[in-house]
Amino acid sequence: MDKQVFLWLAVVATLVILFVPLWFIYAPIASAGWGYIAVSGTLEAVYFALLGSAYQRGDMSLVYPLARGSAPVFVILLALLFLGERVFLGGIAGIALIVTGIYVLHLKSLDRRGLAAPFLSLKERPSQLALLTGLTIAGYNVVDKVGVRYASPVLYLYMDFLVAAALLAPYMVIARSEAIRREWRANKTSIVAVAIMFIASFTLVLMALTRDKVSYVAPVREVSVVFGALLGTLVLKEPFGKAKLAGSALIFVGIVCIGLVR
User: Fold this and answer.
1) C-alpha closest to that of 136 among 227, 247, 52
2) Angle at CA of residue 131, ends 238 and 166, nearest 5°
3) What is the pLDDT of residues 19-61, one digit of tens each?
4) Closest Cα partner for 145 from 66, 39, 18, 12?
5) CB 244 within 8 A of CB 61
6) Does the predicted TM-score (pTM) go above 0.85?
7) Cα–Cα distance, 40 to 69 (Å, whole number)
């Protein structure tokens, strides 16, 4: 599987699936909203490019927790700097628990060597790409917090993905045309399934951003890593050891803490 091409095709499939529904429910977007859509779409394009490159070079068990775990930390910093959000002590504790849980969830062991393994890998290219991906995730989350005020979540998502797909299209069509054909033939069912999940997950996140602080929404969305671990165990028959159990528990407690301070 060419992971970079796969992700781009999933974005394109998202646009195709949503085209007809949005044709009937389209409403004009306020002029101020287009600037946020342009910035967010550009960050989405960088996100998909970085994530695909990281997955091509490194194991998902390393890349995913670094990308998703670092994002909430970057979100807090960006939200404090640009949105003036203030996070209560209970919220900080919840965010810290979630980040720690994501980190622990993907450890191979809980001994000293296992705990240090992700830090030792930071000199490697996949880990660096994963951290840049986390920064990009934080960037578009903060932009979306403001941008979603100017359009419905589904329409905002569509325009966001349209910008991202268009920015990546020249490289994909010119340099990866054969890979696109090969990837579609081999994985079209999975691509469409991922597109549907994109629509559901991104729309729900954007709806949440209209109601709460991005500093809280971004960490809570990382509950996806728990579902990922569960699916890996139930579908792929991966072991669900002490690290996954401990990490899942920390994420759950962190979400409860954030819920209590809202």
Assistant:
1) 52
2) 95
3) 988 888 788 888 889 999 999 999 999 998 888 888 777 766 6
4) 39
5) no
6) no
7) 20
